[in-house]
C-alpha cells in the first residue's frame, strides 16, 4: 500500500460518457482507494471541433450517480483542472521543448500533409510525418506553424506496463506528433503529460488505444526531467459479436443505461468484472467492497465482452434486494394517489420480476388502472367461453364469501372450488389472472387481489363475465 499513489480520470467532453470511459474511471478510482491515495479529475477539452458544452456537466453527474467521488485538486472550489483554461502553460512547455531540441516548429501546409499521406498510402508505407521541417532553419512554406515532438530516431523506448508487462517501441517507427496546434491549443500528447506532472499523478491507467502514445509521453517526461509515472492500459470492451463495442450493439453510454432503469450498484458491479478477476467465485460486490478487493494484478489482458444479459442479471438482483421505499422514489410513484402502504405492496410483488426499472409500468399497470380485456384471451387453451365464464363466476362467489382477503386463504379457496366444481385449473386461474391484469404473464390472482381489494376485483370479474356472455 502506497498512500502517495495518485490516479486520475481525464475525459474529453465530446459526447455521452461511454461504458469504456466509465470503466476507466472506476478502475482508476478503485486503485487509488485501495492504496489509500488520491483520485483526481480533469477535463481535457482541447479538441474544439468535437467539444460539447453540455458534456462536462453530464460526465460529472454520471460519476456522482455511480458513486465515484474524486479528490479536490487545486485551490478553487471546483476542485479539478480544465485544460482550455491553461493554454499559456502548454505554450510555455512547448517552447521549452523546442529550446531543448526535443520539439520543432513545422510549417507544412495542410495541403502538403494530405498529399504526403496519399503518397505514403499508395506506396503501402505508414502514414507518418516525413520530418521535412525537423532541421529546417529558414522555413518559408507558411507563416503559420505547429510544434511537433522530435522523437529520438535511434532509441528504443521501453516501459513496464502494469497490465501488459514489458513494452518497447523503436523511435524510428514513431510519428513526430503535433504537440501544439496552429491555433495555440495543445494536443492530447502535450496537455496530458503536462497535467499529469503538475497533478503529481503516479499511475496513468487508461484504455489500450492510448498505448502507442505512451512512448511519446515518456520522451516529454525525460526531456523536462520530470518523474515518469507508471502506466497501465486496459483492453478493449467488445460487443457480443466480438467487435469493438459501439452504438450498433445497443445502449453503450452511462446515460442510456440510466434511462433504461439500471441501478448504479448493478452497473458498478458489472463494470468491475469487465476485465478484472477477483480470483474467487464471488461476483456480487458493493463499491465499498471493491475498494478493498481491487488490484491491478487481477486485470486481464484479453478483451472483455459486454454481455447485456449479465448486466440484466446483476440489475435484477440489486432491484430485488432494494428497499421498497427507495424503489418508490426511483420509480416516482405518486403516493398521494396511491397510498404508501399500497405502493410498498405493489413494489414488493413486482420487483422480483423486474430486470430494469423501466419494466415497472408493464408489470404493474393493472394495479393502478383496470386493464383492457381481449375476450378471446380470457379463454384458457383448448377451453371454451362458457367454461371461462363458469370459472370466473365460481371465483367471484369464493371472493364474495371470503372472510379474509389473504394470499393463502384465497389460494386455498380457489383450489378447493376447482375440485368441487370439477373444472380445470385454467378455467379459473388463467381466466381470473387475465381478468385482473390483462396480461398472460403476471403474479397469480391470490397475490393481486389483496392489493387491489375485494370490490375492485369483483368489478373486473363482473365486466369480464359480461364479455363472455
UniProtKB/TrEMBL annotation:
Q: Where is this motif: 'HIGH' region?
A: 11-21
Its catalytic activity? tRNA(Glu) + L-glutamate + ATP = L-glutamyl-tRNA(Glu) + AMP + diphosphate
Localization, UniProt? Cytoplasm
What's the chief localization of this chain?
Answer: cytoplasm
Cofactor: record remark: Binds 1 zinc ion per subunit.
Where Zn(2+) binds, per the record, is at 106, 108, 134-135
InterPro entries (alphabetical): aa-tRNA-synth_I_cd-bd, aa-tRNA-synth_I_codon-bd_sub2, aa-tRNA-synth_I_CS, aa_tRNA-synth_I_cd-bd_sf, Glu-tRNA-ligase_bac/mito, Glu/Gln-tRNA-synth, Glu/Gln-tRNA-synth_Ib_cat-dom, GluQ/Sye
Query: A single Gene Ontology molecular function, please?
Result: zinc ion binding
Q: Give the residue interval(s) assigned to the motif 'KMSKS' region.
A: 244-248
Record-linked PANTHER family: GLUTAMATE--TRNA LIGASE (PTHR43311), GLUTAMATE--TRNA LIGASE, MITOCHONDRIAL-RELATED (PTHR43311:SF2)
How does this polypeptide assemble, per the annotation? Monomer.
The entry's function note states: Catalyzes the attachment of glutamate to tRNA(Glu) in a two-step reaction: glutamate is first activated by ATP to form Glu-AMP and then transferred to the acceptor end of tRNA(Glu).
Name the chain's protein. Answer: Glutamate--tRNA ligase
Q: List the source organism.
A: Candidatus Berkelbacteria bacterium CG10_big_fil_rev_8_21_14_0_10_41_12
Amino acid at each position: 500500500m502506497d498512500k502517495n499513489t495518485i490516479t486520475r480520470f481525464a475525459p474529453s467532453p465530446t459526447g455521452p460518457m461511454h461504458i469504456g470511459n466509465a470503466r476507466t474511471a472506476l478502475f482508476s478510482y478503485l486503485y487509488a482507494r485501495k492504496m489509500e491515495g488520491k483520485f483526481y479529475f480533469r477535463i481535457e477539452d482541447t479538441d474544439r471541433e468535437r467539444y460539447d458544452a453540455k458534456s462536462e456537466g453530464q460526465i460529472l453527474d454520471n460519476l456522482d450517480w455511480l458513486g465515484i467521488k474524486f479528490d479536490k485538486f487545486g485551490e478553487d472550489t471546483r476542485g479539478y483542472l480544465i485544460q482550455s483554461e491553461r493554454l499559456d502553460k502548454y505554450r510555455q512547455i512547448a517552447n521549452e521543448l523546442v529550446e531543448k531540441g526535443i520539439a520543432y516548429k513545422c510549417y507544412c501546409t495542410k495541403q502538403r500533409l494530405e498529399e504526403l499521406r496519399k503518397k505514403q498510402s499508395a506506396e503501402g508505407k505508414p502514414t507518418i510525418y516525413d520530418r521535412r521541417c525537423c532541421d529546417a532553419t529558414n522555413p518559408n512554406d507558411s507563416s503559420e506553424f505547429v510544434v511537433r515532438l522530435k522523437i529520438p530516431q535511434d532509441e528504443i523506448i521501453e516501459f513496464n506496463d502494469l497490465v501488459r508487462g514489458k513494452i518497447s517501441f523503436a523511435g524510428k517507427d514513431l510519428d513526430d506528433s503535433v504537440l501544439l496546434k496552429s491555433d495555440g491549443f495543445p494536443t492530447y500528447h502535450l496537455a496530458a503529460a503536462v497535467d499529469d506532472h503538475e497533478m503529481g499523478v503516479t499511475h496513468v491507467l487508461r484504455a489500450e488505444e492510448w498505448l502507442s502514445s505512451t512512448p511519446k509521453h515518456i520522451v516529454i517526461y525525460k526531456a523536462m526531467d520530470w518523474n515518469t509515472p507508471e502506466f497501465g492500459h486496459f483492453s478493449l470492451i467488445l460487443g457480443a459479436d466480438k467487435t469493438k463495442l459501439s452504438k450498433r450493439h445497443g445502449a453503450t453510454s452511462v446515460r442510456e443505461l440510466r434511462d433504461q432503469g439500471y441501478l448504479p450498484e448493478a452497473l458498478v458491479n458489472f463494470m468491475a468484472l469487465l476485465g478484472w478477476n477477483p480470483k474467487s467465485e464471488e461476483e456480487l460486490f458493493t463499491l465499498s467492497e471493491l475498494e478493498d478487493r481491487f488490484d491491478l494484478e487481477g486485470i486481464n489482458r484479453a478483451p472483455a465482452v459486454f454481455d447485456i444479459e449479465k448486466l440484466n442479471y446483476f440489475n435484477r438482483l440489486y432491484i430485488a434486494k432494494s428497499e421498497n421505499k427507495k424503489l418508490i422514489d426511483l420509480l416516482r410513484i405518486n403516493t398521494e394517489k396511491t397510498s404508501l402502504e399500497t405502493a410498498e405492496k405493489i413494489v414488493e410483488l413486482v420487483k422480483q420480476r423486474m430486470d430494469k426499472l423501466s419494466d415497472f409500468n408493464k408489470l404493474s399497470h393493472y394495479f393502478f388502472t383496470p386493464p383492457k380485456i381481449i375476450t378471446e384471451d380470457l379463454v384458457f387453451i383448448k377451453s371454451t367461453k362458457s367454461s371461462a365464464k363458469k370459472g370466473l363466476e365460481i371465483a367471484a362467489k369464493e371472493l364474495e364469501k371470503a372472510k379474509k382477503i389473504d394470499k393463502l386463504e384465497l389460494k386455498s379457496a380457489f383450489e378447493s372450488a376447482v375440485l368441487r366444481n370439477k373444472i380445470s385449473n385454467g378455467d379459473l386461474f388463467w381466466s381470473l389472472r387475465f381478468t385482473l391484469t390483462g396480461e398472460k404473464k403476471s403474479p397469480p390472482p391470490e397475490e393481486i387481489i389483496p392489493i387491489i381489494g375485494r370490490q375492485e376485483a369483483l368489478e373486473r370479474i363482473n365486466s369480464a363475465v359480461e364479455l363472455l356472455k
